[in-house]
Design goal:
138 residues; two-stranded antiparallel sheet; 4 helices; 3% strand; flat
């Protein structure tokens, strides 16, 4: 007989997964920073058959997994987040009605926030791409 996952079990295992992924990201970052020589001098160096570039790719992949897990975590707790914001607004306005009152408007606010975050990241990446400079040749 299969057991049903309760919300508490899902949250526990997601949080455990996020902790493990965070620790892996920390470990890979420390390996890149302190085990390998600097990126410019790391050519030919390997650790467990992976060179600096492969470890860097592993770091980015781990970061993407962590970001996806955090996004899922926030999505699973979105009703709670909206409730906290609604209560803050209600207290701030003396108990009067606030903008986030139901799950529908909370979802709209969440999607709007996600769009804003994606646009800010996109602009920051575009700024980096447009202002990167290659090596200076003598």
């Amino acid at each position: 007989m299969a057991k049903k996952f309760s919300k508490t079990n899902v949250n526990f295992w997601l949080d455990t997964f996020l902790l493990v992924v965070f620790l892996v990201l920390c470990w890979v970052s420390i390996v890149l920073r302190y085990v390998f020589p600097s990126a410019g001098n790391a050519e030919g160096w390997t650790l467990w058959s992976l060179d600096y570039l492969a470890w860097s790719d592993l770091q980015f992949f781990t970061l993407c997994v962590l970001a996806s897990g955090i996004l899922l975590h926030v999505m699973l707790h979105w009703t709670w987040v909206c409730g906290v914001v609604f209560n803050w607004q209600r207290k701030r306005h003396g108990g009067k009605s606030a903008t986030i009152q139901d799950s529908g408007s909370g979802t709209i606010w969440g999607v709007g926030l996600l769009i804003v975050i994606c646009n800010v990241l996109g602009v920051a990446i575009a700024a980096a791409v447009l202002t990167v400079q290659g090596p200076v040749t003598p």
